[in-house]
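User: Can you predict the 3D structure of Polyamine aminopropyltransferase? Sequence below.
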Amino acid sequence: MIDQQVPLRRGAARLPVRPRTGRLLVLAAVFICAACGLVYELELVALASYLTGDSVTQASVVLSVMVFAMGIGSLLAKRLRSRAAVGFGLIEAALALVGGSSALVLYASFAWLGESRHALIGFSLTIGVLIGAEIPLLMTLIQRVDRQDAGGAVADLFAADYVGALVGGLAFPFLLLPMFGQLTGALFTGAVNAAAGGALVLWLFRRDLSSRSRWLLVLANVTVIALLATATVLADDFERAARRAVYGDRVRVAVQTGVQEIVLTGEGRDSLDLYLDGRLGVSARDERRYHEALVHPAMRGPHERVLILGGGDGLAAREVLRYADVREVTVVELDPGVTRLARTDPALAELNGHAYEDPRLRTVGADAFTWLRAARGSYDVVVSDLPDPGITASTKLYSAEFYGLAGESLAPGGRLVVHAGPVESRPLSFWTAEASVRAGGLATRPYRVTGRISGFAAGPDRVTEQGREPRDWGFVLASRRAVPDLGLDPGAPELRWLGERELREADDCAERVRVGGRPPSTLVHPRYREES
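Assistant: Sure. Here are the predicted structure tokens for Polyamine aminopropyltransferase:
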């Protein structure tokens, strides 16, 4: 029996509940579907940023393509208004399958094909079209459930849509990622999406469906949920296989922290590689050459108190602690997972000389920029051991404002050294970093060290940038007054590779490829994306 107190209006749906209850159920479905839709968008942005870097570009591409596609989907949905219920049910099943599997397919594309950009565009378009088709169909359904003025119906729909988007946007970073991770989180969202859309149509509008349409929707939703459930069960095996495809067969540790994914490969100290979000951060094959060139030129002069920004792996600290007259070393590292591994992993701890066991070393878990703003001490040496400046998340740590804060933390006669990325393959970024240090009120001496063995990152589409594999490291040595001399302290320990001759060559090597006229990078005008 139909539980309604008034005769059916022409075109009204034959509901098993009162019209007001049916309207609330439709709005609840709008809320759930909107939350799932925003999770898909954020998942694409997050995974694309992780796989290809430059989160600003990836977010812009995903969001602009999806908004454009939503307009197309709204137009296409006009053809389905006469069969709004079955159309909405099939669209939600398709959206659940495409959105739920998007993270898995993107990661597979990156791992085995070495390229995820085309898949990213395809998913952004498809998900956008399907999301765009929802609102016109839902508008038709809610009008059939409870006839009201168009303005009121639109207001209700968009209110439920926006509140659902808020919940989805908050659930993604604070619930789904910590509990499930990227792959399983997307699959779970797809299952919720399919269940909500299917339940609404198959129960609330079941009397308006033909037998054939009803079985089609049941089959579609059962198939989608079964596929997503199967993928969830196999997600761990898939992730291990994909990780082997990216990093090789030597993966020993893989940890997802609240900041990034940390992967260690290699069994012993001499074969160790450390990857942060897929990018090669440390390779035992050439890390000593890098860290000697980074640290020791800055140690010429007073060096009792040393500040290391980044460098949670302990390798820069290892070089600093080789000076017996160093009294205090402070390491400011954003991700405590890195410092934890540097303490506890046998191979990494051996590589860093068990630096974290030295009583002179203390660690601070904080963003370097934020910490410098509140810092009250002064340091003889500041070592900026941070990711390459082309990575958007680190751009503020290569800004003129950041170097101004670093300069203020220097004691009289103190020195700052900055890792500024490869010179040969990314000259614009390197010389922008040098200009930014100068804009921070410091006098600079750039230098370039060759002999780099390890590439830029794991994965076929990230080993090179613009077809050029990095073969050097670029550094900027700076002080608050005169241009600092490039040399070694008389009390420097015996070094395996670096000497006065190598430093003279490093000085000349940088000046020969100088790119003049570069403007500094600032917080409001970052300039490191030209070569990304």
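Confidence is low (pLDDT under 50) at residues 1-8, 456-467. The chain has 15 helices and eleven strands.
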